[in-house]
Structure formats: C-alpha cells, structure tokens
Amino acid sequence: MASSRQLLAIDRPGVRVQTLVLLRWSAIGGQLLALLIVGLGMGFPIPWLPALGVIGASVSLNLALSALYRWGDRIDGKGALVHLGFDLVQLGVLLYLTGGLSNPFALLLLVPVTISATLLSARATALLVAMALGLLVGLWHWHLPLPWVGGEPLVIPDLYRLGKGVAIGLGMIFLTFYAWQVSAEGRRRQAALVATQAALDRETRMGALGSLAAAAAHELGGPLGTITLIARDLEDTLGDDPELGPDIHLLQQEARRCRDILTGISERAEAEDPFPELAVPVLLREVVDLFEPTRVPVEMRVEWGMGGGPIIRRSPEILHGLSNIVGNALRHAEGRVWLDAGETSAELWVAVTDDGAGFPADLLPKLGEPFLGPSVSGSGSTGLGIFIATTLLERTGGRLSFMNLPEGGARVELRWWRADIESVPGEPLSDGAPERQGMA
Questions:
Q1: What are the percentages of helix, strand and coil residues in the chain, rounded to 5?
Q2: Cβ neighbours for 84, distance < 8 A, ≥ 6 positions apart
Q3: Which backbone phi and psi does 112 adopt, to 5 degrees?
Q4: What is the DSSP letter of 273?
Q5: Pairing state of beta strands 347-354 and 337-343?
Q6: Which of these, 217, 219, 314, 427, is most buried using a 10 Å CB contact count?
Q7: Rounded CA gap, 321 and 389, in Å?
Q8: Residue 430's pLDDT band (cuts 50, 70, 90)
C-alpha cells in the first residue's frame, strides 16, 4: 500500500482547456453586458475603443485555445497559472479604464484567485494572490475617472477607496484560504479512498488467486495421476535396464514431487478461505493470528462458548478493517490489548481496547477522517489506517465509535445491526452488552 506521503504526491491531472475557455467566455459575456448597460442603457461615457480592445484580447485568446487544443485536452498547472494570470491582468486593465476601485465590479478580482485555489497548487495560488494584491494597490493609485452622469467625474474620497481595497484584499485572502482548505480536504479524501480501494482489491485478488490455485491443482491431478501410473509401469518393466533405468527412476521421483507440490498448493489455497461464513469468535481469532507473536498480548473475551456465536459473512472488508484497528491498538498499548465481542437482541458488537495513553482529546472528533499530512497526534500517525478501517467496515453496515476510558487507554467499538451482517440468525444470549470486568 502506498504511504500517505506518496498518496499526497499524486500528480493532479491538470486543467481541461474546455473549463478555462468556458469560464473566460462567461467573463467576456458579463463584461460586454456591463458595458452595454452602463454605456448605452444608462448613458454613461465609456472609453469604448480601449475597453473593447481589452475584451477583444480575451476573445482572441479563447479562439486561439479552441484552434490549438482539442476539446478534451488538458494543460498543466503552470499553463493554467498563466491563463488565470492573464484573466486577472485583463480585468485589472478594464477596471483601470472604468474608475479603478471606485468601480463596483472591482469585486470580480476575487474570481481568478478563488478558481486558482480549487485547481492549482498552494504556491501557484499564493503567486496569483500576490499579483491580485499588487493590482489592488495599483488601481487605488492609478485609474481613469469613473464614468458618471453627464460626463462629470464622481469624486470618491481616497480613504473610502482605500477601505474598499483593503476589504477586497482581505476577502480575497480569506476566500482563497477557505477554497484551498476545502479542495485540499477533497484531494486528501480522494487519495485515502484510493488507498482503501487498493487494500480491498488486494484482498479480493488474494482470495481469487487462492481459488484459482486450488482449481489448477485439482485439474492437474488427473493428468499427473496418469503420468505416475505410466512411470510406475515403466519402472516395473525397465527399472533394471542399465541405460533407461536411471531415467525412469528420475521420472518417477519427479512425478511424486509434482504431486506433493500440487497438494501443498491446494491445501494452502483452501486454508486461505475455507468457509464463506464463520462464527464471530473464529473470525476474531483469525484476525488476532495475523499479529502473533506480538510485543503485547491480545486477550479475546467473547460471551459465547466454544463453537458458539452468530454466523457472519467472512469478507475482506471485515478482516482488513478489524486488523487495522487491532494493529493500531498494538502500536499504542503499553502492556495488553483486549478484543471483546457480544450481542444484543438487535446488534452484534466488537470492541478493541488498549491500555496505552489513549487518543489525544483534540484528535477524537477527527478519527475516521484522512489526515494524510504531518502527524496530528505527534506519534507519526496520519490517520490513514483508521480511515481505511472505517471505510471498509462501514461498507459492511458497521458503525464505529472512538473513546478514551476514564481509567486510561483507548477503545474502539464496532456495531452492526444483526440483519445487516448475520448470515444465520441466532438466538440472542443476552439483552445487552456484557459487563467488562478487570478492564484496564
């Protein structure tokens, strides 16, 4: 499985040219509509020639992109940064021609940097924000008069324009940071889901490989038996021949060796997935056996006797999810880990408890989410393992809860509705979860 750093290093697939072209056509349409309403509809004086020239530059760029790229092509992050930078400068020049920060449409400077925060890297977004802040400062100092009724310039105090520029700049920084956080969370979740799917696919492939090996061993048994019989007859007839005897003996030995190999393959394959359904204690023992021997012992405490317990479907999701939780408990335990299981009239439950330091208080609300970055808890953990376990077990209908015990240690409880997980409904042995005695 890829590490969390490797998952975070997954290259973004770039930005579709279609997306940039459509966004720019929307901006062009809005700019033209605003000029027509203000200039023709309201009769304000507009510097038509330079304003239309600035908009024409965007039109030319869009036409060039449509001609040079196919509709589904993508451009990398640097190319997208150049295009968004062009849109930012184009809007800045248009604002310069129409009043600078006095123009109500100066708020549109937020758009390119917000788009960058959702599509590009943090470094590219920071560069675009710096460019936008520079444009704000420039538009506060230098701009043509704001078009107004009768051609008379509207005088707006410098302090008001400064306040407006500061407000736009702060809004730009806040929106960019917020959009980056949201998109980064989406990317982390996507990377973690890739890791989850990879783990599940591996379990599925291993199961399929075991079945294939068992089938191959079974199919090859017939031809190998025929070869063995022929080799035995040849050995009885020509075993004492000085020339052919050694070769016949070797043939007999190799036939027996092939039979032993196929028998071993068949036994291992059947041992990997002997039953599609298991009693809960048997499945839990299979999970515990994956970690033996361990630094600290794992004590199983179930409320069913030998050979008892509800029968549930044996699935890679349950095995891999529970093994992740038990493995996490073993890493943080000081002296012991408990694996408890029981049932109520409506639910089956499994709990994993350790006697370690417990979950950090600020980490509890985030458990089950992919952190995928520098360790949040200071223990080197990125939360990916618990996220994978949570995702896999929730696929089976499980509900997980994480808590710290008053006497110390951490506890993870997993509950299923019996109808979701039980293959053969059994009689409940108790009306509630059993009392846990001697829990550390």
A1: 60, 10, 30
A2: 112, 113, 115, 116, 120, 128
A3: -60, -40
A4: S
A5: antiparallel
A6: 217
A7: 4
A8: very low
For 326, residues 6+ apart whose C-beta sits below 8 A from its C-beta are 287, 288, 291, 298, 337, 339, 352
Dihedral sign of CA atoms 352, 353, 359, 364 in order: positive
Type of residue found at 236:
D
| Number of residues written out for the chain | 440
How many CA atoms within 13 Å lie on the side-chain side of 435?
2
Give the H or E element holding residue 166.
Answer: helix 158-238
**Residue 180 corresponds to which tokens in the numbers above?**
């980056």
Encoded tokens for 109: 């400077």
Residue at token pair 């021609």: 97
Beta-bridge partner residues of 401:
413
pLDDT in tens, 107-159: 889 988 988 888 888 888 899 999 999 999 999 888 888 888 766 677 788 78
**Hey, which residues does 404 pair with through a beta bridge?**
410
CB 406 within 8 A of CB 416: no
| Residue 30, both tokens | 């809005």
Cα–Cα dist 51/64, whole Å: 20
> Is the Cα dihedral 160, 162, 168, 170 positive or negative?
negative
CB 270 within 8 A of CB 243: no
Report how far residue 383's alpha carbon sits from residue 389's, in angstroms, rounded to the nearest whole number.
10
CA distances from 45 to 30, 35, 94, 149, 151 (A): 18, 10, 14, 8, 6
348 DSSP β-pair partners: 343, 416
Amino acid code (one letter) for 423: S
pLDDT in tens, 269-296: 555 555 567 888 888 888 888 887 777 8
